[in-house]
Amino acid sequence: MSAVTETKEQAAVGHAVRVPFFTRLLERTLKLLSSVRFGIALLVLLVIVCMIGMLVMQQNVDGFAEYYAKLTPAQRVLYGALGFFDIYHTWYFNALLLLLSLNITLASIERFPGAWAYIKSPKRTVAPAYLRSQRPNVTFRVSSESAHEIAVRIAEACRRVGLKPTITAKGQQTFVFAERGAWNRLGAYAVHLALLTIFFGGFMTAQLGRNGLMELAPGLSSSVMSEPRFELNQIKRVGIRLPFTVECVDIQQKLIHKEGSILPNNTIDWLTRIRIHDEHGTHEALVHLNNPHDYRGYRFFQASFISIGNARQVTVQATATDGTTHTVVIPRNGSASLPDGTRLDYVQFFPDFRMINGRPDTASGEYNNPAAQLKITTPLGQEHVAFAFARALPTEAPVAGPVGGYRFQLLDFEKVPLAHVLSIQYDPGARVVYAGFALLTLTLALVFFFSHQRVWALVEPDGTQSYAVTIAGHTNRNQLGFEERFKRLVQTLGQNTDEINFSPKKGAKKS
Predict the structure, then answer these.
(1) What are phi and psi of 5, to 5 degrees?
(2) Which residue in 81, 109, 417, 425 is deepest, having the highest Cβ count within 10 Å?
(3) According to DSSP H, which parts of 56-208 are helical?
């Protein structure tokens, strides 16, 4: 070969192995993205971000306004600039989720063929040196049978201890390969699938989920909930329209002590009866403590209440001018009639009645001077305004005079707040997340409580009229459990388990 030809061939070889820069960059990027170390680093960062989200109150949580007011101006600016008040919607949280999902996907794609090979193409024949390097292993001799008969007996023993055997002849060597739980090699990929499902559900919630408040009082309806937003160091509530209208039918508060306050420490339960209207019709629902209601993917919770005292119903005594009395119970926004046809309508309740600027009002939200405002309609159709007080008033007081031929007194009333505040959550990813966690729990149990156990038996002539039998095994986890199964296998073959070698040689390789 001439020097010119040799030089051209070397140049051609050098040109063939030269890899473009962008190809090398892509390969390195893919190698980094599929790296286990990179995935662990991303997972640690994601955990840190989630911890910040737990330590710093999020803006969609009830009580955020009070929490925000207690922060220093520097904290407000810093937390706001970093997105800590709504961290699960920040770009870096979504970026971490995306990168971690990509890492899990690429790592699975890269390593799946190797795991699938354990199932599709199990290694039924191995080198004798490999067998002697495994833990455990045992060697003994058999002289009264042929190689095939020995292999059949070993295969039957494997079946008895729960291993599925196959027999392979290779020259003068006969192999028995038996295994169980090969599918366990794919357990890690099922865990990866569960994690990706959880991440996808969380992404759906972060991007499409809504969480707002709706104030409801009997007789009022609304199709808008308010969601807090942090803008320019200020808390703003933004209205979000719902695909239905919520009508409040009734609110109720069960108290521990009837004479006590309506504060939470004297409350057993808050009940809100609502009626939901949409294109599908009308839907009745009851929302109370620890018992939310679900409708069309929206969940209604009891969040808080307006702590100004009110009355769900009032018991009023009407005393006529001739001294006869009548007692009626009037529900909120309801009415009742007296025997002569006089109608009493419940108009308003004042927990601490005061006349302010010539108008009836309440001095506080406490039940210091409760009174009910009524509309009186006489049998002749005349309408009057009357007040029923819980405490007796002097007869000469203007508000204590007869109205429509009756004097009225408030005998009793059922305490209830002015309004209830419901929390409404729309979480389209909730079911996806729940399914992911269920799958994760199942797959982790299958991965850690089961293992892939393999046993090889080599039957070969030892130069005399007998055969040397070497049996060895390997498991990917639960070594102690596998060693017990191996002992039972050796016992089934009638061999002494004391001869089993449980100490592997140094430099033993995995197969």
Answers:
(1) -65, -40
(2) 417
(3) 64-70, 73-82, 91-120, 128-133, 147-160, 187-208
Q: Evaluate if residue 398 carries a pLDDT over 80.
A: no
C-alpha angle with apex 166: 165 to 171, nearest 5 degrees?
A: 140
Q: What are phi and psi of 112, to 5 degrees?
A: -65, -45
Q: Are strands 137-142 and 210-216 parallel, antiparallel or unpaired?
A: unpaired
DSSP string of 291-329?
A: B-EEETTEEEEEEEEEEEEEEEEEEEEEEETTS-EEEEE
Whether the predicted pLDDT of 464 surpasses 80: no
**Residue boundaries of the structural domains of the chain:** 25-115, 124-181+451-499, 182-209+427-450, 211-425
Q: Could you give the C-alpha distances from 398 to 394, 403, 488, in angstroms and in order?
A: 9, 10, 101
Residue 508's pLDDT is: 47
Instruction: Specify the higher pLDDT residue, 367 or 30.
Output: 367
Residue 202 confidence (pLDDT): 87
Peptide bond preceding 264: is omega within 30 degrees of 0, i.e. cis?
Answer: no
Residues 440 and 444: their CA atoms lie apart, in Å, by 6
3-state secondary structure 12-35: HHHHHHCCCHHHHHHHHHHHHHCC
Please give the radius of gyration of the chain, using alpha carbons only, rounded to the nearest integer.
Answer: 40
| Cβ count near 280 (within 10 Å) | 10
pLDDT tens profile 64-79? 878 888 999 888 889 9
Give the C-alpha separation, 301 to 290, whole Å: 8
CA distance 433 to 135: 41
Question: Is 498 a residue whose pLDDT tops 50?
Answer: yes
- CA pair distance 249, 430, nearest whole angstrom: 29
- What is the dotted CATH code of the domain comprising 124-181+451-499? 3.30.310.80
Q: How far apart are CA 142 and CA 467, in angstroms?
A: 5
Reported as a single tens digit per residue, the pLDDT across 220-232 is 999 999 887 766 5
**What are the structure tokens assigned to 311, written together?**
């009355």
- Rounded Cα–Cα distance for residues 178 and 199 (Å): 39
> What is the average per-residue pLDDT within 88-105?
91
Positive or negative: CA dihedral 73, 78, 80, 81: positive
Summarize pLDDT for 120-163 with one digit per residue, the tens: 999 999 999 999 899 899 999 998 788 999 999 999 999 999 99
Q: What burial class does residue 214 get, using C-beta atoms within 10 Å of its C-beta: 0-12 exposed, 13-18 middle, 19+ buried? A: buried
CA separation for the pair 503, 122 (Å, rounded): 25
pLDDT band at 504 (very low <50, low <70, confident <90, very high): low
